[in-house]
């Protein structure tokens, strides 16, 4: 969840570290700091709050040091105060460490180190790491391998004592030409420049310097020096590794004239849908192509063989995408599907059933709960007969991530880097992945006729233009509506069928960035409790798209209106006149097939959340207490 940046090279490190941390602000944080090494000492500067406060403390300080580490912290252990900010040091301030993740056995290590004379100055789990490294360096009984750097060996021995998920970067005043990094279940990559090397918890921090990147695997550590990079496993074996070249362009992490990244990313959604259609949907397919699927996801055929059920594991917005996916997989492909919060599945897994496909969804590919749930599912099926063996599929925007390395099959959602913490274009990209998967399965299982598939494909091809229509015609109206609703305390969103998850997503977006209490409900459930909340101060946003449940949603909306609630309708423009007496405000969208309506229905809800937050003067891209990549349980 936090951000790590490290540098060793020929340039002063401070500005490179700060600039890199600024590119990681989207990950969420509440304090920041850097530590550099030069002239036989560590210079450490930390600050509570945003990076501009750290930058202010660094202004006027001459710091030519050419090696250093930086960090943005999202508080887990200890309050968001300066004394808990990273980097942390040992008592002699010779070793400095930044860390992402959770050290689960830090209490035991802390007590052990205290008994040996170490004094702690923070409430964090991270602080045990520099003390542990210093202990190995200082102890005459430490079995340091004399064939490698003592600093590297001390870090290697230290990480073997750590339990949990972590990524660390370490510098040492006594080894001013070495930067040591290690990874276990939290993301960390090394960047290769010209005579300089970088490390970062996410590639946007270093892409302006280099696109040659080596993501570390679990159980690996590396030594960066001015001469190159050495990679080892935790057992001490030297590994042969080769970097790869990123396709990510530095311009993708710029606002390009938009006030906020979130608004830019909302407007990028037509291009994201086009990218999915071009990559995975065969445009030349016709109903006469009987032997060829219209979808090309590049998945192993064994995933589909004798498939009896699907279970989806996800968190947050990805969980909402999974709910839409469940509807598509059941209604189009006829496969019973369940959707689980990954954090709950880990501790209450379903019974092991045969021929089960498990799908993990994670925008970042680093969501700790989802990764752990998938790993558990993989492990618990080992030793069972063939039909019980694990079938794992990942849906992610980052195929090079931990999820991409964990599961053998990946659908890359092709959304491009998303900076705003509140997911927008990556949600739509996940939905496109499910449309592709459901149609592919429907073709293989022959649960849809070829003309039905052709009709659905034609409707999906129209989506980019329809999203552009909503963006071009509705933003002004939604911005004006946001002015009226900016001081509202509570919202309710309702939908039915495939659009119930969109009601949940609309409520989540509003909560995330506007800090307004909002809830999503199946429209038919309003009268079973939530209707007691309604009065003239609680707006109700109803998603009413033509289809099987359209009249039902309108009826449920009228029940809310009878309790004086202000009704806002997301409904096709062609029919809005007939229901104008029901809705106080209509946010018109194109008339589309009910099956694909979620992708057009979610756009006004994203814009509404954005403009309310912007009107309230809030930090839209970096909402409080949230992080883009949730790498802790």
Structure description:
The chain has 633 residues and is of the alpha/beta class. It has an eight-stranded antiparallel β-sheet, with helices on one face. Helix 3 packs across helix 4 (128-138) and helix 8 runs parallel beside helix 12 (425-445). The longest helix is centred in the last third of the chain and has 23 residues, at 463-485. It is globular and about 80 Å long. The termini are close together. The mean pLDDT is 91.
List the helices and strands and how they pair.
Layout (H helix, E strand, L loop, with lengths): L2 E6 L4 H11 L7 E8 L2 E8 L2 H8 L8 E7 L14 E2 L5 E9 L2 H10 L12 H11 L11 H10 L4 E9 L2 E10 L4 E4 L4 E4 L11 E4 L4 E6 L2 E6 L4 E2 L4 E2 L15 H7 L1 H12 L28 E6 L1 H18 L3 E5 H4 L10 E7 L5 H13 L10 E6 L5 H5 L2 E4 L12 H21 L4 H12 L1 H23 L4 E6 L4 H15 L2 E6 L17 E4 L6 H12 L5 E6 L12 E5 L7 H19 L18
Parallel strand pairs: 16-17, 16-18, 18-19, 19-20, 21-22, 21-23, 23-24, 24-25
Antiparallel strand pairs: 1-4, 1-10, 2-3, 2-4, 5-6, 6-7, 7-8, 8-12, 9-10, 9-11, 11-15, 12-13, 13-14
Helix pairs in contact: 3-4, 4-5, 7-12, 7-14, 8-12, 8-15, 14-17, 15-17
Short description:
This protein has 633 residues and is an alpha/beta fold.
Key traits:
alpha/beta; eight-stranded antiparallel β-sheet; globular
Strand runs, count: 25
User: Helical amount among residues, as a percent range?
Assistant: 25-40%
Uncertain spans: none
The radius of gyration is 26 Å
Hey, roughly how much beta strand do the residues contain? 15-25%
Please give the order of strands in the largest beta sheet: 3-2-4-1-10-9-11-15
Termini gap? 11 Å
What average pLDDT do the residues reach? 91
Number of helices: 17
Dominant shape? globular
The class by helix and strand makeup works out as alpha/beta
Largest sheet: 8 strands, antiparallel
